[in-house]
Amino acid sequence: MVSKINKKILLAASGGIAAYKTAELVRLLRKKNAEVRVVLTHAAEKFVTPLTFQALSGHAVATELLDTEQENAMGHINLARWADLLIVAPATADIIAKFSHGLADDLLSTLYLAAECPVYIAPAMNQAMWNKTVTQDNIKKLQNHGVTIIGPESGDQACGEQGFGRMSEPEEICNHLLTGSSSSLLQGKSVLISAGPTREPLDPVRYISNRSSGKMGYALAEAAINQGASVTLVSGPVSLSAPAKTNLVNVETAQQMYEEVLQRAGLYDVYIGAAAVADYSPDQIKEEKIKKQADRTTIVLRKNKDILSAVAHLKQRPFTVGFAAETQELEKYARGKLERKNLDMIAANWVGKESGGFEDDNNALQVFWRQGKQNFEMMNKKRLAEKLIELIAEKLDEKNTTKNP
Ligand code: PMT
Known about the structure:
Elements: E1 8-13, H1 19-31, E2 35-40, H2 42-45, H3 50-57, H4 68-74, H5 76-82, E3 85-91, H6 93-101, H7 107-114, E4 119-123, H8 127-131, H9 133-144, E5 148-149, E6 153-156, E7 162-166, H10 170-178, E8 190-195, E9 200-201, E10 207-208, H11 215-226, E11 230-235, E12 247-250, H12 254-265, E13 270-273, E14 280-282, E15 301-303, H13 307-312, E16 319-326, H14 330-340, E17 345-350, E18 362-369, E19 372-380, H15 381-403
């Protein structure tokens, strides 16, 4: 429940259809006792009028960078200094790109550069624009600069498409702003995550590996950080950059991953095994490149140690969450792993199908624990990771409450 606050909030809308929801946001913030001043970009003015926002906020709306009257009343530098926080809702792909590149050619981009207060943005755009690598790079850059991203949500879009890009609802943005964030479910907790594939060398140039891209594990690291956790990510070779604030440990083989995870696991509150660890490695690594010879050849493999099971059998063990990648009888095999490996929870995904699982940006999960299960439908791995982290936080809390009533 959000209580009243007395913050000075600078609320800016850039030019997207979601700007109509910004009016409701002003109303909600004022209801919570916040003082709100509104900035509209010229593109936003095509969707909504300054008059609406003047009436709702009780202050003249700023639209110009170099307007003599407005500069006298509350110049852009003063406006930036006045604010306790700046929220841009909706934030279009254009304004996000401007912020991330430090452009200052209109009132809002200049305000962003001048603002020393916390900055929040609620992106809103077509799903393809949101998913475009350049937009995601811009978002990451802003996050690295300390900007908090609220949303976007998945669903029907004004353009008739479906997917991520819809601005979060005003109530959610309001809660986020007034509580500092809605993200503190793992505050003070430490989370160890393994991600990506392992590589098992055959000779100096060849290895056995799998298709894991690390996307699922990296998204979990980001989601856990956003919930206030301190996160260590033990990662096989992937081409992703680790989320800001992650303690990244790079490994290559299953044995290295085993060592790096096991030496830490007992000190962590949660371990999530999202890596696709090789079950077997070549029994011998040839020192020289193996020469092409017979038409048929044999590689002898030996079983690797099971990292997940070893963590879950530690005397002082974290809340242990495994993944199960299955091509058949998902629940039966996942529940088997839950029992056999002594886990608290297992997140099972279909693999080898047309979409989801390995490499894909999307995935669906069926999560099992001893007394229950929850299905998460196919969605972007980042969103899915947020939902899984929320579930883990809930079950961890229940376990701790039972242990220490
Ligand atoms: O990386 P992405 O491209 O985003 O793909 C995500 C994913 C499909 C890799 C991920 O969602 C996933 O399912 N990860 C686990 C893959 C896997 O190895 O599943 P498994 O059913 O073979 O293993 C079960 C569990 O035991 C896993 O938690 C695995 O990390 C763990 N394990 C397996 C073998 C081993 N030697 N040590 C382990 O810890």
